[in-house]
Amino acid sequence: MEKQEKHQTPGVRPVMDTYSSKIELAYNGSREDLDPYVPAAHRPLESNTSSFGALAHLLKASLGSGVLAMPLAFKNAGLLVGVIGTMAIGFVCAHVIHVLVKTSQALCVEIKRPCLGYAETCDLVFQTGPKPIRKYAPFARELADWALAVTHLGACCVYIVVIAESFKQVSDEYGGPKWSVSTFCALTLVVLIPLTQITKLKYLVPFSALANFVWLTSICISIYYCLRSPPPLSERNLATSVSGLPNFISTSLFAMEGIGVVMPVENEMTKPQQFLGCPGVLNIAMTAVVALYTFVGFSGYLNFGEEVRGSLTLNLPQDEILAQVAKILVACVMLLSYALIFYVPVDVVWRRLQEKIPARSHRWSIAGLRLGGTLLTVGLACAIPRLELFMELVGAVCLSVMGLSLPAIVETVFRWDKDMGTCNWILWKNCLILLFSMVAMVSGVTFSIKSMIDNL
Asked: Fewer C-beta neighbours within 10 Å, C or N terminus of the chain?
């Protein structure tokens, strides 16, 4: 070997080395084609949720307080229109979630990122999209973040009103103080102020686990009362006037739309490819959600008719202990769940304030922010203690934007220079979703504000 090296011409690489270099160059050049980037393979070890676990998380997030609001939605539409409308809205919600997740997964492969959140997906789709719209990337991110924050703040207001009305009904029945709903809303501060000062999500896990068990019990009790002695179908409206449809759509969106938790659940999966597809985690979850929501909405409106309230438990009998137990259970669930829902808007606001505040003041600043947010939501609930008005307004504004408009826009931007399908059907489909979203938002906000003015 040494002899060969001595007789080599200076500046000329050995034949074997040159050949090896060509092999290495060819291999490296085609490595991406032979071994494409798989986002799931690069996710952190903490992302170990199975497909079954993801299904459980998605069902848990979707089967929240909204399921007890569905009888109110059916009141605004009628039995027949309510059934058809709930299935239609469920299909649209499932489709836009599918669109968002599919776009996020494709974007992860393109930019070689293991996972993306909702706001990150909106931001990066615009950043990598056609040049004229790249400047709108920060706006898309801010819109997604704030829509999510306001949605959760609205849900917090709904929780406070349900808690207050539940305790008021029990207090009135058993000789307690005859205070107003607004007074009971203010009293929730006694529990909510210390509870919202818990800053670590892991400390909220025991509360969440207890809330799930209690929530299931209260739903079962509510369904029992709905099925106990229902009147004949002829006593209920099969369809109402067109003016009730905006409120039906807004309430249904508030109840059913769980797009805020979809990306975190998908990002934690070890096999994210099983989230979509047939049957897939998403399709199974949305089918179960639509079926349960339709059943509860139909049976609740059938039993209680025009007297149905914003939460089904508020219609349960005043003079039966089991019914009062269900009301107290729902109130306790919402007290325990408030801190978890409240975490999202606090996080959105704090991320924007953190760098502007000295590090030594962070502890007191976050405590002040949490206290201010709690006082804000309780103050809004005291000012407008009408549960259905909150649900309609939040559903009309935030969920129309976050749950329908943004996913349609994001898919359109992402596919603009790629493939829009035969005759650009994806573009036309997304335009229809956007139109439906705008109509639902404008009409829903109009009717909600009118109702608020009438009830002041």
From this structure: N
